[in-house]
Amino acid sequence: MKPASDEAQGRKVGDGQRHTNSDERPLIYTPEEALAISEMDFERYCRIATLSFSLELKRAALVELEHEVAELTMAVVAARQADDGELASRWHAVQTFIESQVLELRMWVALNDKSFEAAYGYFVSAQKYAAAAERWLGEFPPVAALVERLAHQETVLFPRQWFFSLAFIVDENKVECSICRTLASSCDHIPGRLYNGFEAQRILGRVVSVREISMVDNPSDKRCRVIDFGGIDPLTGKDRENTDTVNDIV
C-alpha cells in the first residue's frame, strides 16, 4: 500500500502495485488514506474474483492483498506500541476488510481446485470478516457491497446447508473479558467492539450443562452444520470418504 500523496511524486494511486520506501519499510499514512486507496482498488479485485476465469490473476491479486494485510498488521502493532488504542482499532478495522477480500479470493481458488470444503470454509470466514468490518467501518460502500455479494454467492455457489445451534448454561463466575481478563459481569468492555485493535470477547471458563441442540437457518457459526447424510456430504453430494476435509480454516 502507499499514501495518496504519492500521486504527486509520480506514482499512480490504486495501480495494484505495492510501494515501500528506500529502506523497504511500509510507508506511513493514515487508515483513512488506506480506505480511500482500497475503495479505488475494490472494483478491480471484484472483477478478478467474480468475472475472471484466470487463476493466475486471482493468485496475483492474492499476493497483493496479503502484502497489504502484512503492512496493516505492522501498522496495528506500531499504534499499540505508541499507546494509541484508537488508531490501532482503526487500522485493525481496515485490515479486517482487506482480509475479507483475501478470503473471498481464496474461496474462488479453492473452488477452481475442486476443494469444496476448503472453499466453504473460506467463504464462511470471508462473511464473518466482512460483517465485522462493516460493523467497525460504518458507512463504507465497498464493505457493504462485499457483504451483499457474499450473501448472493452463498445462494448460487453452495447447496443449502443444515445448521446446528448449541445452547448451554455457564458458570458466570468463570466468564472473563478478553480485554481486561476480569469477570465479564464486572467490566465495561462491550463484546464485539474494538479496544486497542483487539475485539472484545467473552471467554467461557466452565460450561455447567448443555441445554439444547437445535437446527437453525442462521447460526452464529456456519461451520456448525450437518456433514453426513447417510454417508453423503450435503456440500458436495459425494461419499464422505472421498470428500476433502479441512479443519481450522481461519
Chain-wise SSE layout:
Layout: H1 31-50, H2 55-81, H3 85-112, H4 116-137, H5 141-157, E1 163-170, E2 175-177, E3 194-195, E4 198-199, E5 202-204, E6 207-216
Antiparallel strand pairs: 1-6, 2-5, 3-4
Describe what is shown at a glance.
The chain has 5 helices and 6 strands. The protein has helices at 31-50, 55-81, 85-112, 116-137, 141-157; strands at 163-170, 175-177, 194-195, 198-199, 202-204, 207-216.
Tell me what you see in this structure:
The protein folds into 2 domains: 4-157, no CATH class; 163-238, no CATH class. The protein has a two-stranded antiparallel sheet with strand order 1-6. A two-stranded antiparallel sheet has the order 2-5. A hairpin with a 2-residue loop joins β3 and β4 (198-199). It contains 5 helices and 6 strands, in the order αααααββββββ. Residues 1-26 and 245-250 have low confidence and may be disordered. α1 (31-50) runs parallel beside α3, α3 packs antiparallel against α4 and α4 runs antiparallel to α5. It starts with 30 loop residues before the first helix and ends in a 34-residue tail after the last strand. The chain is 46% helix and 11% strand. By secondary structure, it is mainly α.
